[in-house]
Amino acid sequence: MDLKSSLLAMPFIAVSTLSQAAVVDVKITNLTQGIYYTPLLVTAHTSDAHLFEVGTAASPALQMMAEGGDISGLVTIADGIGAVSSANPAAGLLAPTDYVMVSDLDTGSNTHLSIVAMLLPTNDGFVGKDSWEIPSEAGTYTFYMNGYDAGTEANDEIVNGGGASGTPGIPANPGMNGGTGGSGVATASSNTNIHIHPGNVGDQDATGGMSDLDSRIHRWLNPVAKVVVTVK
Length: 232
What we know:
232 residues, mainly beta, Immunoglobulin-like, globular, Spondin_N_sf
């Protein structure tokens, strides 16, 4: 039998190009100078699942997270589809320039990674990565995350203790470095789908103006986070 015939006679072995399950470490660094992250949700899931999708309307669970930092609805969804998650790994807020490490996350049969957290102080801004494919090969991989606008609330930039879905206003300014008495930057959201956040406007009036945020502290440009994933 010649070489060609021998090759044709060999059994066919299917080689999958999809990511294989892995144990991973995930390091998330806040790259901003004045924005805090509310409790993070880091979750490994199947390729057809999404915590959010840019260009589509936010789900009620995503709205809860983006307006008030409440990840419980997203955790329930993740648990219901067999995802493997780390909820609130920083045990609270992640301050500017700080990082948090999720160690030894066993992804099981899940092949994609998503990350979300609210950005404070914003009305409905969040940092996120949607459905990043986990490499099958061991190694260290880096990507960056943008700040998104959920499109569910006007960016009025008024800090009033709000945060419940559909209630205007910013829940808090954790750095306590803004102003009060703002008249409001915007009264409506022109894009009601999830989109790149336009950034905070702010002003430099501590007792009035249009915003309760300080333009010297609370403005940002994307990306707002760095993620280093170690596949073991």
